[in-house]
Amino acid sequence: MPHENIAPPADWARQLLAFWFDAHGMDDWFGGGPGFDAELGALVQDWRAALRSLPAASFLTDPETALAAILLFDQVPRNLHRGDAQAFATDSLAVAIARGVVERGWDRDWNDDRRVFAYLPFEHSEDIADQRESLRLMAQLADPSFLEYAQKHFDIVDRFGRFPHRNAALGRASRPGEEAAIEEGKNW
Known about the structure:
Layout: H1 12-22, H2 26-31, H3 34-51, H4 63-80, H5 91-104, H6 112-124, H7 128-138, H8 144-160, H9 167-170, H10 178-183
């Protein structure tokens, strides 16, 4: 059970980045399961609860804090709250921080592993302008699969104006064609 009044340690960003990038990798990031999610949750759940009410500018003090915050508000909820509205509850905060990172050019000095996570909030957004930004940013990465996934996300938002696979979690009624799109495998 999270305790919203527990302040994170001063080095929370360093701890999260070490966990994410040093102790784990691609298999966990994109294919992890209950074990990875539990380990991640044990580390950061209270931090997320304590920090989620702060404005984006609070996390744009330096590149490492910004990247850790993007993970905390974009990736972490997707791992800890699969199939629940809480998975998307801090998306706007993650996008605002990611936008600040790109505007400051901090992403240009990172390797592609870090850059992809700085860009994923745009790909996860249901705003078509954010989707366009995702395509622009993911095209800069060496691995073409990141751009391919970004294109698939763009296509769904361009077609439906949202991600249909979120409908159940968000209590939204499906529109024509959305259930078929989910069945076709467009369910990130």
